[in-house]
Amino acid sequence: MLDILIVEDDPASRTALAEWLARQGMTCRTACDLASARLALVDDAPDLALIDLELPDGSGLQLLSVLGELPETDVVMISGKTTVETAIEALRLGARDFLTKPVALPRLTEILKRFSVTATRRHELRRVREELQEAGRFGDIVGVSPAMRRIYGAIERVAPTDETVFVIGPTGTGKELVAAMLHRLSLRASGPFVALNCGSVSASLIESELFGHERGSFTGAHRLHQGVFERAQGGTLFLDEVTEMPPDMQVRLLRVLESGKLTRVGGSGEIELDVRIVASTNRDPHDAVESGVLRQDLLYRLHVFPLRLPPLSERGGDIRLLAESFLRELNEEMQTGKTFSPAALQALEAWSWPGNVRELRNVVRRAWIMSGEVVDVGDVMLGDAAAGKAPPGPDFVLRAGTSIESAEKQLIEATLVYVDGDKRKAAGLLGISLKTLYTRLGLYAAGAG
Predict the structure, then answer these.
(1) In 303-433, where does DSSP find H-type helix?
(2) Which terminus of the chain has fewer Cβ atoms in its 10 Å neighbourhood, N or C?
(3) Shortest CA distance to 43 belongs to which of 1, 93, 3, 9?
(4) What domains sit in the chain, N to C, each tagged with a CATH number?
(5) Is the whole model's pTM more than 0.70, yes or no?
(6) Do 118 and 187 touch, CB atoms closer than 8 A?
(7) Whole-angstrom Cα distance, residue 141 to residue 92?
C-alpha cells in the first residue's frame, strides 16, 4: 500500500483522484498549493507525490528541490499543458514520470504498480536498518563488526539490481543467509526464493533438478517435473556450492544463463526465464578454475558482483552477539531462561572458530544441553573438548625446574579461578574425578596448615 500526496488546485480533480486511489487501497493526503504541500511534506514523507505543474502560488517544479531531500519519495508531475521541454526539465530535477491531463487511469495503474515495488523495498530496508541499530541484526544475519557492515553496504547496493552475485566464503559463514537477504531487499522480493545445494544432488539427477523433465523422458519419470529454474520464475535462484557441479552440467548451465531459456530433459520447447541468479562457493574461484572444478567461462558469467564473506575469526565482537542470539533462540524454542557466565563468553571469544558461525551455533547448542541455568565454561566444549578433551583457558606461566607437585597445584588453582570455583567443572576440564580434586585440595590445605 502506497502513501500518496496529491498536490492539485482543482477541487473536483483532486477529490476524484483521491477517491479513485483510495479504492485501489492507497492512503491519500491532499494539498491545494505549494504552501500546504510543503507543510504536508514536513509532517511525513509520502511514498509517492502526484504534483500538478501549475499551482496558484507557483510551479509544481518548485517542490522538486524539497523532495530532492526526501529520497524515500518518488515524484510524478501532472499537467494539462505539457511540452517536451517541460517534461525534460521535470525529469532533470528529479521527477520519475510525467502524466498529462486528463489522467489516463491505465497508465496511472502501471505507475502505481511499479512504485509499489520500490516503496516496499524502501520500507523493508528501513526496517532492516532500524533492526541493525537496535538489535545488531541485518535481517537474519547477526553482526555489527566493520567487516559485516561492509557486507551489508554491498548487499544494499546490489540487491535492487538484477545482476548476478557470486558469494564467496569459507564453509559456515552464512552464504545462504546472504543470498536470502539479497532476495529480500530486491525488487523481486514478492517472488520465490529457491535454493539448490549443487553438491548434495547426485550427478545422475542434477540435470533434472536444475532444468526439469517431461513425463516419460526416462525410467521413473512418471510426471512432469519443474526444475529449480522454473520454480524460481519471477524471483531468485541460489546455486549453493556451484563449484561442486559436474563439468558437463556447468556447460549447460552456462548456456541457460547466457540465453535466458531452458529446455526440460526429454522436451523440445524452450521456456523463457525471468530469474535472478545468486551463486556461492567455499573455494577461491580462481583456484577452482586452475584445479579444473570450475569452468573459466562459467566463472566469468557468475563473477559479475563478487561478495566475499569474512571468516568468524575476522569479525571482532560478533562472537558474543552471535552466541547470545543462538542461546536466546534455544531459550525461546525450549521455554528456558539460560544465560552465559562471563567465563563462558570469554572462552568463546578466545577460540579461533575454524568452523565459523556454523561451529559456534553447534557449540552453543551443546552447551545449552550440558548446562544448568547458567551456561558456564565447563559446558562450552571447543575443539578437542568436543571429543572429551579440555577447552583452552587463559595461559599461566611456570618456571623451568618447577616440581611436578607444585606445577599440578598451580594448574588446579588456576583452573578453579577460571571456572569461578565450580569444582565439578574444574574436575571435568582437568580430566580427573571430583573425588581426586577434593583429595588434592585437602592435601594443599593440610600443607598450608
Answers:
(1) 318-334, 342-350, 356-370, 404-418, 423-430
(2) C
(3) 3
(4) 3-120 (3.40.50.2300), 136-310 (3.40.50.300), 314-387 (1.10.8.60), 404-448 (1.10.10.60)
(5) yes
(6) yes
(7) 38
